[in-house]
Amino acid sequence: MDLVVGASESTVKSLLGKLGSLLAQEYTLISGVRGDIQYINDELASMQAFLRDITATPDGQDNRMKDWMKQVRDMAYDVEDCIDEAGHRIHGPRSDICCASVVIPVHDVLTWWPRRQIATQIADLKSRAQQIALRRKRYGVDNFKNDKNTSPAGSGPTAGFNVADHQEAIPRLIGLQEPVAMGEAVEKLGRWVTDDSKSGGVLSIVGFGGLGKTTIAMELYRKYSDKFDRRAMVTLSQISDVEAVLESILDQVKPQDQNEDEQQTSSDDSGIFGKKRIISPLLRTIVRRVNWNSNPRNHNETHMDGDNKGAGSLDKELADVRKGLHKQLRDQLTNNSFYGPINDTSSFLLLIDDVWSVTTLENIRGFLPMPPASKTKGRIIVTTRFPAVGHACNRRPEDDIHNVRELSHDQSTELFKKSLHESKTLFGAQTQGFRRNLTRISREAVQTATQSSQISEHDTTVSSTRINRIPGDQLEKLLKEALLAQFGQRDCENIERISQEIVLQAMEHSQNTETIRSREPRSSMAGGDHVPTEIIESCGGLPLAIVTMAGTVACNPSNSEWDGFYNTLVPKDPVKTVTPDIVTKIINYCYNDMPGELRTLSLYLSIFPKGSKVSRKRLTRRWIAEGFVTEKEGLSLEDVAEAYCNYLIKRKIIRPVEHCSNGKVKSFQVHDMVLHYILAKASEENFVNVIGGHWLTPLPSTKVRRLSLHGGDTKRGNVTNKMNLSHVRSLTMFGSMNQLPTHSFKFGIAQVLDLEGCKGFKNHHMNNICKMVLLKYLSLRRIDIKELPEKIGNLKELETLDIRDTNVEVLPSSVCQLERLVNLLGGNKRTRKALNFPKDNKKKTIKGSLRVLSGVAVDGRSAAAADLHHLTDLRKLAIYKLDIRKEDETFRLLSSSIEYLGGYSLHTLVVDDDSSEFLKSLAALSSPPKLLNSLELSGKLVDLPKWIMRLDFLTKLTLSVTALQAENLKQLSELKTLFSLTFSLTAAKLDPQTAAILEDNKAHTGGEILFPAGGFDKLKLLRFFAPVMPSLSFPEMAMPNLQRLELRFSILEGVYGLHNLQKNLEEVHLRMHDEAGEVTRQIVQDMATTAREDSKSPRIIVDLYHE
């Protein structure tokens, strides 16, 4: 829990609720303890009210106040630990048990000792609470005094955070916009990058944090990487594992595995942490042995691997590994296999961000084929905050250096306005007041209808909740659907009338409001055009400061706080020299300006490594498990968590770097300086403790509550042995399980355990996990595990179980005992390896309030998997393998379940049916799932279900290539909300029957696929993944808003009419098989050459994949 850093009201409510629950349980208490608990409960409530006021004015906190706040926080942590321990150590007898007069006394005797221990702990906690209160008076910690003349951060407009306003972000693609005010530098440096007279060289971009050096480097990489045969980018820092960096480079320049490019897994720890290891196991073993042998204490002990090699042997083995890595890199970087065999004209572009050491860079460079030793044309772009490093890299005639300067006033203003506009338009052009008015008026109207049509008050609340989630461009229709779904056919006339009146009243009220606003003089905040000059100048021309400030301005709807804002940021005696302190000061102000709960959620970002891509879903699910999110305004936990994430994007605290194919944010990054600030804050408040990785953080001196082990620092590999881990509530590991001693892997009160991608997972780890009875979030994604034990059923509190990309094929029968399970994630999306339900469990059904069931298999013996009628909260159903026949009972159950759930909350449906019998049966659904926004149908599908055209909210559609017909394309072009369209087929599924369907489709269209002229008004992403890609032809007026075209193939017959898409088309991504034939290679080379010669042509990026 967190009382200080964010004044998290939701977390405190959780603790106070636990205290109240404990008071209500007579059986857990010993005489005299009830009063102690009540005292602690009341004292904490008062302390929290006091802290909520004092944390609103961070500048008013002196050292005594901060120390007192720390004591309160630590006591609250210990209270929660005590309550949770009591919860799982003492359980009352069942109320319906027979012979209660005998059983209850026996139970009291058996639980006397643990109840006695807990009573002692509670008495001690009461004494601590009293001492903290007395200590505050003794040392003169003053009461908070609110100065009416000041406007403290966090108490202004943003303090009233409106969840509903941050629900629906506009679907979009990223990475297609050029950065503001960087054009001149990019153009200048671009000439160096593309200078054919230079065979190699290093370009050093130098500037302190926040100046925009990484932005310039990334734009160079984005703009010119398509001119090189191979490309890669990595991030370094104070601590860098050279071998891991080299492996990351090798992984990026090698052909990717088949389907890895299609919906890649969210590598939340990309860079040197998330990449697939090539020679890592051997190298890590050698490093461990070297470190072990260098410790004199270990000389007389047996090595854990039973292998105690001499130093000479280890050195030779390490040298062999390095030699192998060197050879692989040289082979890949000198192999111009895009268009032909190995030759001397290959080229590569490498971006190395945030270099701290010249030695590290030279070690990396020594592994690369650089002139004069090689004829390969290699360009290396380096960013560094140290001028000495930049000058040291500029030793050769072909090298260059660029010192980044702060922006001019005009450039600063331009960047500020653009960033402000981005934040303000994140949630669409429709007036946010329209949504609020709709919700308010709908409640009133439905309440009126309640009295006349006997609709229950409960139904009224649920209905207005659904109304609050209406997308702006489909309000009236979805409102009517929501009312009908909730009230049924009991009062159709009233529902029709109510839905029309609600929308009309909301629109009228919003239009009147806009009219009034248009008559008012424009304030400094109205459109971002008249922000006080001093505010922009206070940013010192530093892009990071400007962007962060713009996010803060966008979240403040009025200018009533500008006096305090200005006085806080602008010094009385302005300093002419621009320093990094300006960025830190602005980050600090913008952080403190956020509502308390958002500050808490921001600090949680410190768990993830620098430069990593953080999955949005992974983060929001963890927030929920930690208890940071509560239902608000009738919205679910997931919706509120997503709104929080959207708010941090709007605030510019996090930056989207990858979008899903439906246009939603898939992953994001945190700027280094923002992350450094957050990490320091989290460490100071003992909110999160980070060990290893890029950061040199002090070891915790108190109990550890949230622990994140980043790995990559062999010098600090055993520091966990010295830490008190018995109070850990959240453990996140990146790298190897060897970072954590086995004896410490026993956290009875842990609620979050995230081991995604960890190496070295053993059976005893799983046994210990099954003892974590309070666990709510468990991620074993991408670890080496083959099965789950039956004891997994002991985790009664589990809400998220993520076993994707593992070797687990069958769920244990005890998974049906997990009544709180919300997210069950399994299988492998790329290979379609699915998760099976136990065959001996036919009479049991999946319990819990599942909202996501993904990656499962359904066959004729999986009645539990097919009968899903009771899962009325289910939002996503993804079936990766379907093996059922029409005569099977499972066939009928699954079809009925999909039809039934479609009338509730089902938004995403994925069905992979090789036989296509079930897909064909879906066409006959009497009531299709009209609220779907994502649909994927894979198999030998030729004719589309007619009801697809009635999916008014469908944004993402994925179909088999067998459905690629002119008639189907014409129908799909009429879908008004479709954002992305994908046609996919893997080589493994290209059987004779499928090949015959494809040939028949080509024969009906004269050998090419002609897209219709017109339609597809909202389509921005078009993708084709198939071994054989037929000729694609785009006439004039086709897909007027298409931004990205992606093709993956072994054989490409041609792409025609790309010039007709040039209005908005920004990028064409071609992924070619590494053994493609000469004809295909020539077609690709011609397309790339044409694009390079035509400045108006979209960028064409060529990559290889392997199968």
TrEMBL record:
The opening ranks of the lineage are: Eukaryota, Viridiplantae, Streptophyta, Embryophyta, Tracheophyta
Q: Which InterPro entries match?
A: Apaf_helical (IPR042197), Disease_R_plants (IPR044974), LRR_dom_sf (IPR032675), LRR_R13L4/SHOC2-like (IPR055414), NB-ARC (IPR002182), P-loop_NTPase (IPR027417), RX-like_CC (IPR038005), Rx_N (IPR041118)
Q: What's the protein name?
A: AAA+ ATPase domain-containing protein
Which residue ranges does the record assign to the Disease resistance protein winged helix domain? 607-675
Q: Residues annotated as region Disordered?
A: 253-272, 509-529
This entry's Gene Ontology molecular function terms read: ADP binding
Alphabetized UniProt keyword annotations: Coiled coil, Leucine-rich repeat, Nucleotide-binding, Plant defense, Repeat
Q: Which organism is it from?
A: Leersia perrieri
Indicate whether Cytoplasm appears among the record's keywords: no
- Please state every residue range assigned to the domain named NB-ARC: 185-275, 347-421
User: Where does the source fall among the domains of life?
Assistant: Eukaryota
Is Coiled coil among the key words of this record? yes
Could you provide one GO biological process annotation from this protein's UniProt record?
Answer: innate immune response-activating signaling pathway
Domain Disease resistance R13L4/SHOC-2-like LRR, by residue range, is 727-1082
The text of the family note is: Belongs to the disease resistance NB-LRR family.
Recorded hits in Pfam families, A to Z, give: LRR_14, NB-ARC, Rx_N, WHD_DRP
Q: Which PANTHER family match?
A: DISEASE RESISTANCE PROTEIN RP (PTHR23155), DISEASE RESISTANCE PROTEIN RPP13 (PTHR23155:SF947)
Residue stretches making up the Disease resistance N-terminal domain: 12-92
